[in-house]
């Protein structure tokens, strides 16, 4: 069986009000965690920002920040 190599192992996506605005792909876990830790508010979104971090085994972590101050983390 052939092993497929990836250029990256982690993906961090940023969406404002349901629209994808940025994707960061990295192979280093520390770099991915540092970028994830910078996701602290609703950014330029009018209503809400959603940040998703996917790891190599398929686990996805999600943070949603609303303009009214609510925060939802999964």
Question: Briefly, what is this?
Answer:
The protein is mostly beta strands. The protein is built from one helix and five strands, in the order ββαβββ. The longest helix has 9 residues.
**Cα radius of gyration in angstroms:** 14 Å
Helical fraction equals 10-25%
Sheet having the most strands? 5 strands, antiparallel
Averaged pLDDT, please? 92
Number of continuous helical runs: 1
Strand order of the largest sheet: 2-1-3-4-5
Distance between the termini: 35 Å
Description of the structure:
With 74 residues, the chain is mainly β. It contains one helix and five strands, in the order E-E-H-E-E-E. Strands 2-1-3-4-5 form a five-stranded antiparallel β-sheet. The mean pLDDT is 92.
Q: SSE layout and pairings?
A:
Blueprint: E1 10-16, E2 19-26, H1 29-37, E3 48-54, E4 60-66, E5 71-73
Antiparallel strand pairs: 1-2, 1-3, 3-4, 4-5
Features:
74 residues; single chain; 43% strand; elongated; mainly beta
């Amino acid at each position: 069986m052939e092993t497929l190599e990836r250029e990256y192992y982690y993906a961090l996506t940023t969406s404002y009000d349901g629209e994808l605005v940025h994707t960061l792909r990295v192979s280093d876990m520390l770099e991915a965690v540092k970028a994830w830790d910078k996701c602290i508010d609703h950014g330029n979104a009018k209503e809400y920002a959603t940040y998703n971090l996917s790891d190599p085994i398929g686990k996805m972590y999600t943070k949603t920040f609303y303009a009214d101050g609510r925060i939802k983390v999964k």
